[in-house]
Structures are given as structure tokens and as C-alpha cells.
Amino acid sequence: MSELALLEIDGATATLTLNRPEARNALSIDLIGAIDARVAELERTDGVTVAVMTGAGRAFCAGMDLKAVLGDPEAPPRLLGSLARLALRIRALPQVVVAKVNGAAIGGGCGLTCVCDVSITHADSKMGFPEVDLGVCPAVVAPWLVRKIGAGRARHVLLTGGIVSGRHAHELGIVDRVVASRDELDTAGDELARRLAGGGARALAATKGLLNELDGSLDASVGERGATLSAEVLATPEARAMLTERFGC
Amino acid sequence: MIRVEHEDHIACVTLARPDQRNALTPGMLGALADAVRNAPSSGARALLLAGEGRVFCAGFDLTLCRESPNGSVMRDLLSGLSGAIRAMRGLDIPVVIACHGAAIAGGCALLGGADVVVADRGCKLGYPVVRLGVSPAVSAPFLRTAVGDGACRARLLETDLIDGERAHEIGLVHELVKTREDVLPRAMEVARALGTKPPWAIAATKRWCNELTPAGGAQRALEVSLSLTGGDEERALLEKVWGGNA
User: Fold this and answer.
1) Which domains does chain A have, with CATH numbers?
2) Which residues of chain B does A146 touch, with a Cβ-Cβ cutoff of 8 Å?
3) Other C-beta atoms within 10 Å of A49: how many?
4) DSSP B57-86
5) What is the largest CA-CA distance in chain B?
6) What pLDDT does residue B245 have?
7) Which helix (H) or strand (E) holds B212?
8) Cα B112 to the center of its chain, rounded Å
9) pLDDT confidence of A72, banded at 50, 70, 90?
10) Cβ B200–A156 below 8 Å, yes or no?
11) B187 contact A CB<8A
């Protein structure tokens, strides 16, 4: 079986690739575990200043793999809790983390892009938080969106649900940079990573650390509470009925 | 002066005092808070707040304060405003505000209770009340969660108004439409769309948003605004306004 998450290091830049393209890189327990292991490697790696996170295949990340966990009531809290812990671990990395959003970044996948320090996508990618449309609550990703775009805009985006283009996501502040087409993304992403890696590694890490302190990023209790809330909503008969109908299982 | 109608599971609450640009009275603010609190029990899945006539809301009806030199009407207005905003925020269904033409002072403060604000590009918004000796502190806890601390500080301390485009840039307005006539139809569309979403997911998400960024200090903020009522500065500055109108 191929590795679910890949890590390549090229000088001062590392690339972490979500590698479950047949499932549009949907976040299963195994994929989250594989990403977590790669993040742990980054924690131990000296000389890397910038880490680029991206997805293999057409999608960046289709979100939580809810279909796979619907049958087991124990599984959703585990999955949501592991995503909350992974998000915190990514945020705490000393490297500047760039989300290179190659395609759809939906729900938990869009949340991951907000955990990263800087994000770039192309005009036609699909991004957003359609959780409320599915009868679930985006409680794990909400704190990260609030930190990214502010509380008022986050409230609007999360309650409105739906999916928007990369261009619109950029207008909403969900993503920092947008290029005109998919063809331009790799070059622009490389250029962005190179420019970021030109900064002093210690200066970047110190600045990122202070920003994490200021916005409460490293408060694990928020993520835990979000995971609990999200799992509670997911466990309601209404939500389960809606998801079962949606996924046809 | 507060009209409540139900349409397609939307509670449509209208400030209906168009001849006075929907200037707020203590009675209107109390009725607004009641209408907001009662909306879910009538089966509404979203609440739309709008204003009748040329503008959404011109703020407090200051002429009422003229008859109460001890500041009691101003106190009722400020407490009523805080209560109405808190009622909107505490609601389990989403609140959409159709903000057309102008939202001034207390009218602008009402936006702090909204989950989604739709406004026209030329709409005038702001809190020009310090020149009346009134402190807009009551709005601060809600405004800062909407637009962040920097923009909040500027808006509350400066007395000039901003237009809809600028309000959209700072995050006070979420959706812009071209003209004031476009505001209500678009806001209704937004409310209808929100009203079709699973109510349990909307309620959980709204509560979590409130918990993540609590509008902390709402009571304290109200007290700061109340502390100036009936004072010499406020009376002197308000009298200038009345003198100008006379």
C-alpha cells in the first residue's frame, strides 16, 4: 500500500502531500495518523524553514471521511479529536506552513488550510464549509476560521455554508493568494515558498510563536471542546438520518 | 412601530416608523427584543430585520430625551438597545439584517446582533454620537467581534460615517448590493436560504460562534454608556442639537 502522506525535503523547503487521491484525500483516521507522523518528522528536522502542504491528485482535501465512520458510534469522536490534535500540532511547527490548495478544500480540508500560516490557490478551486448543509456542525474548524478571517466574517461563512470558488474564497479572506489557473499554481507556490524560506528561520519561528500566543492557537481545550460538540451533533438522530440519506448507506 | 410578519418560516421584523426614519424609542426597542425572542416559538427558522421607508434606521429618537433632563429616557434607550442586540445574538436561528440607505448610531449598533448584514454600496453607517456627549460604548463588545479591535476603535471614536463599500471592507457588512431597493429582496433570499438549512446544525454552529468569541462585557459596556446620561456635557451638547432643530 502506498504511503498516505508523503514528505519530501528539498533544501530549506519541505513538501507534505496528502496521498489518498482515490478518496479526494478525505480525512480518515489512517490519513490523519499518516499526516501526524509526517508532522512529527518535521518537528525533528533541522534546516527546514518552510513546509508546503498539498494534495495528490485533483483535490486538496475533501474533508472528514464521514461516510467511513457512520456505522460506528465510537468512531466520529475519535476522528474529530484526532483532527483537532493534528491541527494544533501543525500550528505549533516552527516552520512556516503553506497550504498549496491544488483543488477542492472542503469542510475539514478547508479548515486545514486555515491552520496553515499562508495559503495559495487558483481561481477555480472549490473551497468552503458546507457542514451546516449536511446537518453537522463545523466546530473543530470554526476556531481556525475565526483566527483566519475574524469572528464576524467566520459567523457569516459558517452559517451560510456552501462551497465557493478559489477566487471568492480569496475575497472572503479564507485564502491569502489566488492565481488565475491551476497551471500557474505550482510555479507560484514554489516562488512563494522560496521567498518565505529567504527569511531568517529563527525570526520566522519566533514571530509565528508570538502570533500563536496572541490568538490563543495553542489552547488545546478549544479544539477538544470543538471535537466534542461536533461529535454530539453528528450523533443526533436528525444528523445521522441526513448523512445516511446523503451517502446512501 | 415594530411590525412582525411570518413568511416561509421567516420572521420578518420591521422597524415601521418611516416618517421619523425609524428613529428608535424605548418602546420600539422593547418590542423588538420581544419579537426576536418570540420568533422561534412561532416556527421561524430565520429572522429578518428591516426598516420601512428610505433608510434602515437613523438611531435614537433624541427629541424624546428633551423632556427628561435627568437622562431617564436616554437610559431606557441604551438599556433597550443592549437588550435588543443581546436578544438577537442569543437566538438559535440566524438573524439577517437588511440595512438600506442608512444605519446611524443606535441603528448601526443593531447590526451587532446580526449573523449576516446586507447593505447597499451607498449606505451610510456609523456611530457619530460622541459629539452629542453620548458614549457608544454599549456597542463596543458586539462591534469588535464583527470587525476586530482596530476598526472598532476607529468607528466608535470618529464621528464621520462610512459608506457600504467601506463597511464591507471592514466586515461590518457581509453582502453588498447596488442600490437601496436591492437590499430587502436580497436579504430575504439570504434569510430563506438560511431557513432551509438543518436547524440543529445552525443552532449548534451559532452557539459555538458565540462561545468562541463571546461579546464579553456587554453589561459593563452598557454601564459605561449609562454613566454619562443626565450629565452636564451630554445635556449641553444635546441642547445644541435641539437648538439647531428649533
Assistant:
1) 5-184 (3.90.226.10)
2) 209, 212-213
3) 21
4) B--B-GGGGGG-TTSHHHHHHHHHHHHHHH
5) 53
6) 47
7) helix B199-212
8) 6
9) confident
10) no
11) no
What are the grid coordinates assigned to A124, written together?
Answer: 477555480
Q: From the CB of residue B110, how many other CB atoms can be counted at a distance below 10 Å? A: 29
- Annotated catalytic, A232? no
Rounded to an integer, the average pLDDT of B152-174 is: 95
How many Å apart are CA A63 and CA A234, to the nearest integer?
A: 15
Q: Is B119 an interface residue toward A (CB < 8 Å)?
A: no
The whole-number average pLDDT for the span B125-153 is 92
What is the predicted ipTM? 0.89
Tell me which of A74, A131, A191, A224 is the catalytic residue: A131
Which chain B residues are within 8 Å of A134, Cβ to Cβ?
198, 201
Q: Coil, strand or helix: which one is A98?
A: strand
* Domains of chain B: residue spans and CATH: 2-199+214-245 (3.90.226.10)
Cβ <8 Å between B171 and A150: yes
Beta strands (DSSP E) in B2-71 are 2-7, 10-15, 46-51
Q: Is B50 exposed, middle or buried (0-12, 13-18, 19+ CB in 10 A)?
A: buried
Q: What mean pLDDT is predicted for residues B160-169?
A: 96
Q: Is B115–A159 a contact, with Cβ atoms under 8 angstroms apart?
A: yes
pTM summary value: 0.93
Q: Is A128 on the interface with B (CB under 8 A)?
A: no
Contacts with A155 from chain B: Cβ below 8 Å: 115, 206, 209
Q: Which of B51, B34, B45 is nearest to B191 (CA)?
A: B45
pLDDT of amino acid A70: 83
- The amino acid at residue B6 is H
CA distance A132 to B95: 16
Q: What is the pLDDT of residues B231-245, one digit of tens each?
A: 888 888 888 877 754
